[in-house]
Specification:
The protein has two helices and no strands. α1 packs across α2. The protein is an all-alpha fold and 59 residues long. The relative contact order is 0.08.
Length: 59
C-alpha cells in the first residue's frame, strides 16, 4: 500500500487536539479563507510567529 498525503520533509506525526470558543474558531476560519490555506497551516504559522517573538525577546 502506498503512503497517503503529500510527500514532505517535515513529517507531522504528532497529533494535538484543542477546544476553541465559537469566536476563536470563526477567527481561525476567517484567517484560513483569506489566506487560502488550511486551518492547520494557520495554526502552524501562529506557532512560528510566537516562537519568533520569543527569540526576539531573548536578544
Amino acid at each position: 500500500m502506498s503512503p497517503k498525503g503529500r510527500p514532505t520533509q517535515d513529517k507531522r506525526g504528532k497529533r494535538f487536539e484543542i477546544r476553541l470558543s465559537e469566536s476563536t474558531y470563526n477567527t481561525l476560519e476567517e484567517c484560513s479563507e483569506k489566506l487560502k490555506i488550511t486551518k492547520s497551516e494557520v495554526i502552524h504559522k501562529g506557532i512560528a510567529l510566537v516562537k519568533a517573538d520569543i527569540d526576539k525577546q531573548k536578544k
